[in-house]
Amino acid sequence: MFWKTLDQEKRLYLIAALVLLLGLAGSIVIYLTAGDDPKAAVGYTIVDGQAYPIMPEDSRMYRHDLQVYGGKYSVAADEFLRWFSSLWHGQTLAFTITVITLLISLGLFFAAKTTPPDPKH
Questions:
Q1: Which residues fall within 8 angstroms of residue 49, CB to CB, at 6 or more apart?
Q2: 89-114 burial string, b = 16+ CB within 10 Å, else e?
Q3: Number of C-beta neighbours around residue 65 at 10 A
């Protein structure tokens, strides 16, 4: 019954606030529980007692072979695809969800602000 008493503008404001609240809460949970452990490491290097993974795309041989077989476009495409796929794993996913949540809620807030008044209310 509560939902029917609200006009469209107030409904959109309420939905935008819920999207913002749930999205930010979800991203905080993901950030606190997710780890960033690389699974595709070909080895590790130790600097000052700290182990750092060596990824295949960091090696000169990998980049050379990629450029020989596919050219500079292949190297650029590989870098873009690795960056884009990294957005959906680990703690980076929390930041991705935060940005998406902010964009959706801002869009809903803007839609609510530009909604014409409801003649029924």
A1: none
A2: eeebbbebbbeebeeebeebbeebee
A3: 12
Q: Could you tell me the two tokens for 4?
A: 């029917």
- Tell me how far CA of residue 41 lies from CA of 8, 37, 118, in angstroms: 52, 9, 58
CB 16 within 8 A of CB 119: no
Spatial distance between the Cα atoms of 61 and 106, rounded to a whole number of angstroms: 45
The confidence score (pLDDT) of residue 47 equals 87
CA–CA dist 45, 51 (Å, integer): 6
Taking 70 as the pLDDT cut, the residues of the chain under it are 1-4, 36-40, 118-121
